[in-house]
């Protein structure tokens, strides 16, 4: 079984669509094995997005992701990394297919509702960062 980290970002929480996002994940056959609501510290946000540190949108991304509570969860299932990325849709919500989370709910590339780890390697790193007790 594979695990991945999913975040319902502060825009998703503000828009009251936590239930829909969770329901899409469960409907797909994936299981949520850990979950909580928290506001990220700047340090955690910077570490989480460290691969984007040199990008022009990095400061704004860190401000956005720390700007309100988010829902963090560990999702488990067969090919969970790929399955979540497929449910989420393309990073740019305007290009994301209708029927995906971003395709249905978002218009801006930064405020794109959800995050899913982009590889099993990233998933392991991100799960350790958010849920160290799971190893
Ligand atoms: P996420 O899947 O969490 O991974 C990196 C995040 O950076 C991405 O979703 C977006 O929220 C954000 N992002 C990616 N590209 C851009 C961009 N061009 N401008 C602003 N934010 C971006």
UniProtKB/TrEMBL annotation:
EC category name: transferase
Subunit structure, per the record?
A: Homotetramer.
Alphabetized UniProt keyword annotations: ATP-binding, Cytoplasm, Kinase, Magnesium, Metal-binding, Nucleotide metabolism, Nucleotide-binding, Phosphoprotein, Transferase
Q: Give the cofactors, semicolon-separated.
A: Mg(2+)
Please name the NCBIfam families in this protein's record. Answer: PRK00668.1
Lineage, top ranks: Bacteria, Bacillati, Actinomycetota, Actinomycetes, Streptosporangiales
- Domain Nucleoside diphosphate kinase-like residue range list: 1-135
- Provide the gene name from the record: ndk
Q: Which reaction does it catalyse?
A: a ribonucleoside 5'-diphosphate + ATP = a ribonucleoside 5'-triphosphate + ADP; a 2'-deoxyribonucleoside 5'-diphosphate + ATP = a 2'-deoxyribonucleoside 5'-triphosphate + ADP
Any single GO molecular-function term of the entry would be:
nucleoside diphosphate kinase activity
The protein's job, in short, is:
Major role in the synthesis of nucleoside triphosphates other than ATP. The ATP gamma phosphate is transferred to the NDP beta phosphate via a ping-pong mechanism, using a phosphorylated active-site intermediate.
Q: What is this protein called?
A: Nucleoside diphosphate kinase
What InterPro entries does the record point to?
A: NDK-like_dom, NDK-like_dom_sf, Nucleoside_diP_kinase
Query: Keyword Iron-sulfur on this protein?
Result: no
Q: Which CDD domains match?
A: NDPk_I (cd04413)
What SMART domains does this protein map onto?
NDK
Residue numbers binding ATP = 9, 57, 85, 91, 102, 112
